[in-house]
Amino acid sequence: MRFLLSAAAAILAAVLPLSAPAQDYPTRSVKIIVTLAPGGTADILARLLAEKLSSAWGQPVVVENRPGASGMIGAEAVAKADPDGYTLLMGYNAEIAINPSIFRSMSYDPRKAFTPVTKAVAVVVGRRRDREAVAHEHPQRGGDGGDREPARQRPEARFAQAGRERIHS
After folding, report:
1. Does pTM top 0.85 for this prediction?
2. Cβ(89)–Cβ(13) under 8 Å?
3. Using one digit for the tens of pLDDT, what is the confidence trace for 50-78?
């Protein structure tokens, strides 16, 4: 939880300067679309951010989860939204950097569809041998977004290095 609060503080430090009183933005509610399932780190960070931005801006900031297709469902919704700054994307590197190289066709071009606002969080936690020990001792159970999800590829590699098979539910 301490990590989440620190991450939220870092996000706020980066984003709150955008809420200067002289600006007219926002004049209505803002939507943050999260490309991952509810309850994960991106969802929690988006909700913490939404709460603080809503207080700072005096406008509702709503979080909507649209997971699936390696993040493309949520990213497509943002790409098709009016480019007025009232629909924001909270995802990870798949929607922008990875998917164009592994999918033959996408309904959006990430280089044209999105304008970066801020980097929310980047974290490297733990030593490799510690992660491998955990992977060896505790097979992970849980759903994921599929074989092409970066969030799945990294754990799969760690389990393979530790000589363990990951159990998917």
Report:
1. no
2. no
3. 999 999 999 999 999 999 999 999 999 99
